[in-house]
Each structure stands twice: as C-alpha cells, then as structure tokens.
Amino acid sequence: xxxxxxxxxxxxxxxxxxxxxxxxxxxxxxxxxxxxxxxxxxxxxxxxxxxxxxxxxxxxxxxxxxxxxxxxxxxxxxxxxxxxxxxxxxxxxxxxxxxxxxxxxxxxxxxxxxxxxxxxxxxxxxxxxxxxxxxxxxxxxxxxxxxxxxxxxxxxxxxxxxxxxxxxxxxxxxxxxxxxxxxxxxxxxxxxxxxxxxxxxxxxxxxxxxxxxxxxxxxxxxxxxxxxxxxxxxxxxxxxxxxxxxxxxxxxxxxxxxxxxxxxxxxxxxxxxxxxxxxxxxxxxxxxxxxxxxxxxxxxxxxxxxxxxxxxxxxxxxxxxxxxxxxxxxxxxxxxxxxxxxxxxxxxxxxxxxxxxxxxxxxxxxxxxxxxxxxxxxxxxxxxxxxxxxxxxxxxxxxxxxxxxxxxxxxxxxxxxxxxxxxxxxxxxxxxxxxxxxxxxxxxxxxxxxxxxxxxxxxxxxxxxxxxxxxxxxxxxxxxxxxxxxxxxxxxxxxxxxxxxxxxxxxxxxxxxxxxxxxxxxxxxxxxxxxxxxxxxxxxxxxxxxxxxxxxxxxxx
Length: 557
Description:
Elements: E1 3-8, H1 15-25, E2 34-36, H2 45-61, E3 66-70, H3 75-87, E4 91-96, H4 101-113, H5 118-121, E5 140-143, E6 153-159, E7 166-167, E8 172-177, E9 182-186, E10 191-196, E11 203-205, E12 209-214, H6 223-230, H7 233-243, H8 247-251, H9 253-256, H10 259-263, H11 266-275, H12 293-297, H13 304-307, H14 310-316, H15 341-356, E13 359-367, H16 369-379, H17 388-402, E14 408-410, E15 415-417, E16 423-425, E17 427-429, E18 432-434, E19 437-438, H18 446-461, E20 475-479, E21 498-512, E22 515-529, H19 535-550
Parallel strand pairs: 1-3, 1-4, 2-3, 16-20, 20-21
Antiparallel strand pairs: 5-12, 6-8, 6-11, 7-10, 8-9, 10-12, 13-22, 14-15, 16-19, 17-18, 21-22
Helix pairs in contact: 14-18, 17-18, 17-19
C-alpha cells in the first residue's frame, strides 16, 4: 500500500513535529517516505512551493509514498492532490495543524532569531557617544510587524488601544495597512500600553518602534529615543526574553485551549458579548475561518448564510459619498488626499514595470455569439452562475498550457517558464488595485472559477484578503468591459510577462459567410514583455485564446 501524508497549516503551528507523531501512530517507518518540505528547497517562497508540488505529483505518478508539509497549500490544491491519490489507489492521510496566533508568532520569532549573527547579538549596548537604556523588568518593545513577504513599510490605520489601557495576550492592538491589505495585529504580550510610537495614519518601516507594553506606572523615559537613535540591542534582547518565556505552558496551549480561542479574535468576542451575538451563528472571514471584528459588526441575525457570500454583502455596504464642496464661481479650490500605503506601492511597482519592461500590445477581435449561447445554457443549471469573465479566465488557462512562454518571468541571466497556471484577476478597490490569485486555474471548472472570483473580489473590496492570496500569479487578466470600455492597454503585473485586457461585448454589424449580419464581438489586448515574449509568440497565444472563446465546447474536450 502506498501512502500520501499531507500535513497542512500556516507557519509556526508545529507541522514538522506532527509528521513524526503521524508516522509513529501509524506504525510506519519515516525512512520509507519522501519528505517534501517547501522550506528545505532552494529559491524564493513561490519557487519553493512550486518545486514542492512538482515533487508531490511526481511521487504520485511514480507510485512512491510521500509526506508533504503543505505550508501554503490552499483547499483546492489539497483537493486536487487527494483526487489524484484516490485515482492511483494511494491511502491518503490529512492532518490539519493549528495553534493560537501568539504561539505561532513566538515560534516564528524564535526561528528568525537564529538567523541573527552571534556577534551582532553580543554587540556592546553602551558606549561613551551613544549610551543606551536597559529595559525595566517586564517591559517589552513591540515593533512594526512584517505581515507579508513584500512588506517594507506599514501604516497604522486604527489604534484599538490607547495609552494606559490594559492589554492581554491576544488582544487586537491596531489595524495595520500593508502593501496588500489592512490586517488586525494582535499582541502576544500582557501588561499596560505605556507608549505609542506610530500615530494613526503614520507610516514607518518594518521593525520600527510601534509600541511599548509593560507594568502600569513603569518609567520608560529614554527607551523610545534610544531605540530610534541607535536601534540598541537592549530592546532586542528584552523582546527575546519575552519571547523565550517558559514554553511549557504555551506548548500545551493548543490542547487546552478551546475552539473559541483559536477561531475568534479577542476583540470580536468582546464586541459580540456587548451586542449579545451568538458567535456560533457568525461566519468568520479571517484565516482558517477565524471570526474577526468586522464579521461581528456586520452580522445580521437570521442572515448568517449571507455572510459567507462576501461578493454580495460587501459591495452593498458602500460608504456614503461625501458631499462635494461648494466652489464659488471664479474661485480656485483644491483638495489634497494623503496617499495610502497601498497607493504608494501600486505607483512604485507600476512605474518599475513600465520603465524596466519593454511593453508592446497585440489586439484581437473575438466573436462572442457562441459564448453567449453557451453561457445561457450553463446558467440555466440550478445554483450555477458563470460570467463572460469566467469564460475568458478558463480559456486563458487552457491557452497558457499550450503556450507556456507567455506564462514566464524575466530574470537577469535566464527566463523562468511556469508550467503551472496561476491567474491573477485585477480587482478595483477604494485605494487602488489588488490582484488576488486563482492557484492552478487550469484544474478548475467554470463554476469553480466563478465562485472563487466572486469570493476573492468581495473580500478584496472589504480588505479581507490575506497576503498569501495575492502571491504567486503567473499571468494576469484585467476586465473593464462592465464599465463600457471597449478596448484598453494595461501595464504588466510583474514578475508576470504578460497581462490580458478585456473589453466590453459590443453588438454591431459583422460579415459572416459573405453576408452582413448582427453579431456580438469583444476586443482583447495582450501587453507583453518583449524580453521574454516575441511578437509571433504573443500572436499565436491570442489565436488559440480566440478559438477557445469562440468555441466554448472545445474547453470541455
């Protein structure tokens, strides 16, 4: 009997430890299994995940037992693996590993500390020129967290605690805006909030002083100044002390903690108690289904099912439009709007893309008559809703499999061709544009694509997307057809080599079989990076894409 062990969960939850327990409980020798751990592979985070999945599929193909530590594997990836295991008659075992966020963060912090050179840690903390102040007992310096792989700066959107407030482990300190989303930041220290280093609306680099927590009444004079001036070792060592508190209790927390503690944020629990809301009726939109503040605030009794459909609920909760100022005739008036962190990052990346990648655009006109007929038939099935954009995404995934050079990335010394298809879908939000990703899009059905796009778009508009859900795209699609735009050109979403711009469907006279008839057409524009994609290659891709869209039945073959 061949085995496929899948141990799933985010970083810092103890997946590697569980692997050994799994094998021991099953009375199996771990040496008989190929251990596939993305963290042990070379390359970037995305490359590690891709290589790990290749090893998984190779093991299944070659009938070899394996253990897969699915650090960032989504539900659909896991289901795809399980289906393949079933077809090959593997015995599959899945372990979902989780723990409380504070414990996970402590473990991650401890791992990162191991990467600090010993000589840096032992650097003298005092000098004649720049004296530093040792932290009083029980005082902890909290720094701006790095909430995504690409995050360099963070903006404090809202402080949920003020100076003097009591803080318990797990309390939400603040909402922090990253380059991709606004996320709740929990405290994994207890005490009193003694100092706030970054005010609401303020932006600072990662690892900057965010706050100071400690016993009430503690004199913290000079701590903030010394930390800012020299990045002194004293605060760092104090944080280490806090992180390396006796772990006997914390390591047992997952077993002794209730499900509520794991899946409900403390702030959400507090608000629910104040409003008399039964948390069992609330659907969580946080990681692993965790209930967060906005879920409780937006909860309406008797409509819990609607909460699971962010694509419907979120857009209807649009903020009221601010009244326009009255401008007297003949007078000048301007308004200055502060750039959000997301807007700054968008501007930076789009500028880098436009000025580093030599763009060119290819345009093709596609007949939509058959697609319209097919969509009507598909949507006649109960509980099925497919859009034209979903059909374009599906057709693009198929075309990318036939033309993998379009699915590539430019590197200084090579071109990386991706044989897996992860399509990013551009979604307009209040602060700009985000690109959630559909992993392994080619393996999804039309209805699955539709459900996932609606879910991701809804959560994007509600700032509920996780950073991991916006990483790893190999190709991007932008659709402005719903706004009546017939044709446009987009800037490539690097590190992708191409982006497809989709226009509106237009009814107009067309020539068919030598006769002028009424037809429906749509314009597609493909922006390509000339460093990786030649004109002929891009043209061939568009021809294949056109064939799929004009004959949707071919996507079922």
